[in-house]
Design brief:
Layout (H helix, E strand, L loop, with lengths): L2 H21 L4 E3 L1 E6 L3 E9 L4 E6 L4 E7 L1 E3 L6 E4 L5 E10 L2 E8 L4 E9 L3 E9 L28 H4 L6 E6 L16 H17 L5 E4 L12 H7 L4 E8 L9 E6 L5 H10 L10 H9 L4 H22 L5 E7 L11 E8 L3 H7 L2 H21 L4
Parallel strand pairs: 1-6, 12-13, 12-14, 14-17, 15-16
Antiparallel strand pairs: 2-3, 3-11, 4-5, 5-9, 7-8, 8-9, 10-11, 15-17
Helix pairs in contact: 3-9, 7-9
């Protein structure tokens, strides 16, 4: 085969490949349409799976709302599907292939009987939600929707909309880290209470609370009395592809009268009280001074500071609130940033909670009781749920 012949053959195959690419079906399949009626509104969900551009509008006489989804096609089972609702303000929901690349969903209704409506979307998997609010509350039909479809869109934190909030990201897998363990007892109270035992019990209680919600997958870095180097704990969280990392500890202070609850996120600090706590918590690290450049780089590059701070604020607020319901003199030491090894390298919002002081006799006595530890777990749980709600996922 001479050179010119080879060139013709290569050109033919190139043109054939280009023709195939141009005619490949780039549409995504819409695979489900579902709805249910709540006492105050009706929710309609269009399951798509992949991000797609869409528009919506309303028409009068006859009254209807429509949503057009571009670069999409209908599953054969949905072609010209219609669902009769007839709840007093909605008559039916229809779906059809409007054009070769556009699917249209139409809701036939009576605008005089509704307060307002909104069309929005959720990610993972991508789906479009239509909420239609009636002027008169009606009995609810049985829900067929997951709990992730009940929330409002994400709310900004005090620092604004983080990237996680802009992208509509949620929380599925939570790693809980009971501090210390094994040969590292952590703080030891005056009456011989070991921090490693207290925090393991609190974390087991927290896992039990979270496991009641089927939306979450909960993993503990340790469930027995074993030693895990602090720098390996976020490694575990990263390997599990966690969406949240919660490390639980009990504090100590040279002054036995000092008490309180405090929550930390990863950051630098010059506060001598924080550096003292960080030095104590980091004491069992296996890293050397030669690793300092890498450590500093990881802290500087931490892109989860905003979300970690917001998570810490919610947990701290709810933990203090929960403890204050039952116990007096619960001191709020607030939220601070600090260079804790157990938080370095985490690829998810990560916090460290100092649930009370074992060096304080009153708080040690409280930590020794199952009732107090249950309240601690409940407070942390409340903070986690409050944070997730702010993401628009509940």
């Amino acid at each position: 085969m001479n050179f010119l012949h080879r060139l013709y053959v290569l050109t033919f195959f190139f043109l054939l490949l280009s023709f195939h690419s141009l005619h490949a079906d780039s549409r995504v399949e819409i695979y489900n349409l579902r709805s249910y009626t709540h006492p105050a509104y009706t929710r309609i969900v269009i399951d798509i799976g992949k991000l797609r551009e869409y528009t919506y509008n309303k028409l009068i006489l006859p009254d209807r709302i429509y949503v057009d989804i571009y670069q999409s096609k209908l599953n054969p089972l949905l072609h010209n599907k219609s669902t009769i609702v007839n709840n007093g303000y909605i008559r039916q929901i229809r779906i059809a292939q409007k054009t070769k690349t556009t699917v249209r969903v139409v809701v036939d209704l009576n605008f005089q009987k509704i307060k307002h409506y909104r069309v929005w979307h959720l990610f993972d998997p991508f789906r479009i939600v239509i909420d239609i609010y009636s002027k008169k509350d009606r009995p609810a039909a049985k829900s067929k929707l997951s709990s992730q479809e009940s929330p409002k869109p994400a709310q900004p934190s005090k620092s604004g909309y983080s990237l996680a909030r802009q992208l509509g990201l949620g929380i599925k897998r939570i790693v809980i880290d009971p501090g210390h363990g094994g040969s590292d007892p952590g703080c030891i109270g005056r009456s011989g209470t070991y921090e490693k035992d207290i925090v393991l019990d609190v974390c087991m209680r927290l896992k039990k609370l979270l496991n009641k919600n089927s939306d979450f997958e909960v993993v503990l870095t340790r469930e027995t009395d074993i030693y895990i180097p602090p720098e390996n704990r976020t490694v575990i969280a990263n390997q599990k592809q966690a969406d949240m990392f919660i490390s639980v500890h009990a504090n100590a202070n040279p002054s036995r009268s000092f008490s309180g609850v405090q929550t930390f996120f990863l950051n630098f600090t010059t506060d001598p009280n924080i550096t003292r706590i960080a030095a104590r918590e980091n004491a069992t690290s296996t890293k050397n001074i030669g690793n300092m450049k890498d450590i500093i780089t990881k802290i500087v590059k931490n892109s989860k500071i905003m979300e970690s701070k917001d998570l810490a604020t919610n947990v701290q607020t709810q933990l203090v609130r929960q403890l204050s319901k039952k116990y007096n003199k619960v001191r709020n030491l607030n939220v601070r940033g600090g260079p804790f090894w157990v938080l370095i390298g985490g690829e998810m919002p990560s916090i460290l909670i100092e649930i009370s002081h074992l060096s304080n006799s009153r708080e040690e006595s409280r930590l020794k009781t199952p009732q107090y530890r249950e309240h601690v777990a409940q407070g942390i749980y409340n903070g986690i749920i409050t944070y997730i709600t702010s993401l628009g996922k509940r």
